[in-house]
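Supplementary Methods S3. Input chains for the assembly prediction are listed below.
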Amino acid sequence: MNPVIPAPVPIPLPAPTWLLQFLLVFTFVLHLLAMNSLLGGVIFLTVSSFLGRRDSRHREFTRRVSRVMPPVTAFTITLGVAPLLFVQLVYGQLFYTTSALMAWYWLAVVFLVLLGYYGVYWYQMEHDELGPKAVWVILVTAILFVHVAFLFTQNMTAMLHPQDFYSLYMNGRVGSILGPVTVLNIARLAHFVVAAVALAGLGAALVSHRWKTESPDLADWGRRYGVSLFMGATLVQYLVGLWFLFSLPVEIRQALVGDKLAVGILASAIVLALLAVLSAPRNLLVSSVAILGTVSMMAVVRHFVRMAYLAPYFDPHALPVQGQWVVFFFFVVLLLAGLATVGWMLYVFFRPAARRASA
Amino acid sequence: MNYPVWEPQIMGGGMVIGIIAILHVFVSHFAVGGGLFLPLTERKAYRENNPALLDYVKAHSKFFVLVVLVFGAVSGVGIWWTIGLVTPEATATLIHVFVWGWAIEWVFFIVEIAAAFIYYYGWDRLSPQTHLRVGWIYFGAAWASLLVINGILTFMLTPGKWIERQTFASAYFNPGMLPSLVVRTAVCVALAGVYALITSSAVRDVALRNNVVRYAAQWLLFGAMVIPLAGIWYISTLPSMAREVSMGGSPVVTLFAGLSILLSVLLVAFTYFGPYQRPQAFSTVFAFMLAVLALSTTGVTEWVREAVRKPYIIYGYMYVNSLRLADVGYVQEQGILKSAKWVHQHEVDANAPGRSGGEVFRVECASCHTVNGYNSIRFAVKGWDGAMIDYQVAHLNELKGFMPPFVGTEAERKALVDWLVNLNPRPASPGAGGGNTALPNLSTGIPGEGGPQP
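Predicted structure tokens for the full assembly:
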């Protein structure tokens, strides 16, 4: 039976598909960086909060790292807006369908994020007052965000299977169809969660590094702790990544392996991850740049996998295009101006003179 | 029709959107107005060399961050989430027309959030001048995000020349864009006052409290003075039918429009005779009461704005049930069930037309009506016989201007009527020993599980 896919909107795409796909992947990488810091952050903060009941270093570490979490949460949400916008533009026919099928679950994401966000604030603002109870606040927050990751995994995987849409529809009730929770979905979720812990570990090492003048011992300890989280999680990721790769349907794996470009990018991503692990104990900057390369390349590989899944059913390049170039140009100029403005604000905030004023 | 129809029982999709949207509007306008309030009040504190006032602004900025950055941001995403679930076709259309507009708004969001955090965390780190500058950057970005989204919102009610030209510029610079921008900016200022009344009511220093309460009330009163003037301008740009609907055409909408004015007047009166005239007697309870009044005003007004757009979701282009006007002829000829992708039956089942009628209802009517809950169709047709219902359905758009026409074949209309007739128990006929009171499970709305059997 032919898959049932909604008809496209009878309005041309406002830019060529390749450009929209580029922006989709590019902005997704930005979102990933913040999202990993958030998801991995709340997970290792939970562990450290447990350990912090007896270990003062963990206690002080969580207190300081928690200050970073509210902005990280805000940027996870905001940076997620753009890839979701482009995915709706290019793959809306698939995305809206599976979202509607799982509507109650999908709507729950909003409330889970809202509660999780307040959890992050509560943990940060009342860290000392909460005392031993803080661990429960951050544990619940971590569960909320892992749940969000699970729901995203379900929807983003379901939309790759248009051939199953109609049977899902016929056998369930619109709004309550979460779709099958397969081994592949679990592997995919694990792949994201482990990556998040790794990235957040590296982030914690970078944050700890900033305490070196005021608390050199804690800075050194935090840096080593963050690096060990990063290295450990990345090594685990090699196993989880393999599990995920071999959970993919044979035809998708073959399509991936048969594409030299995809193989080259995947191999480079893996090598860069190894470089990041090896350099982390000595040079955080090199490690960070290498892992940024890994994240970017893995996002591209993810896109290849998506295209391989959809190839028999859906070709976004077949959609009509009529570029809105003037407003696109305006967007690019404003993006540059916006980034420059943010850069200036970060500069005045973090410059040594500002630190002295606060000391 | 093109997408699976999600029917949130009892509430209906419209109410799900409405609840999230009203709360978001109430907070997001504060995000802009509060962004003006903070640097202006901070500057006032510097100019008056008033450290107590500066302390108040610091405390207010914490409240601001907790309300705006968390609830404002998440509920904004929440609206987008729900419109995608309830009206995917219209959402996809808006994204095709305005994707670069939204991308631009996203840039402003990034600047806005970065500025808000640096403003909040920068009280003791930045020089007063730099801190103020960051405050102004926040306000500029926040207002610019309003500038973008306002044009997209007004497009839905007054798409203007876009219908013929289909360009970004013709869509964005639509007739309602500018007056609505003025109205919304004034609302932002007024809401900045509402929220400032909450925080100022908790100030301990009596002299400072009286000063700030009165100052906050001025913000509310100033915003409220501009709103009716700009509102008249905005109303003048509306399609004539939308105006008529709110001015007598539809009793319910007219009532709500009147309620919106009444609540606004009450809000102004309470503010003038309360915190403005007698700041010393003002309390936090009073402040929350004003906030509830302001939230009610916002809710009722937004409801009216949504209601007058009916029968369209994009005026003159797409009906509220996601059917494009351009597709009406085709669907009329082919039939709604054959045109719809997500139905269990693609043509009327002659043996069980009621079941097919339930399918027609879901595809064509469920965007506004629920079976038993909000805007209940069961209640709407109660007491009507088949002939009456058929007449109504056949002339929907003529009899009720805010409803789209029924589009589909005659067999589908009959099936829908059949289903509607059986929603309510028939009156007991004398001597028959009771009427048809054994109703199937209508609440599920799934053929096979519900749908009255003839």
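The mean pLDDT of chain A is 95. Residues 17-51 of chain A form the longest helix (35 residues).
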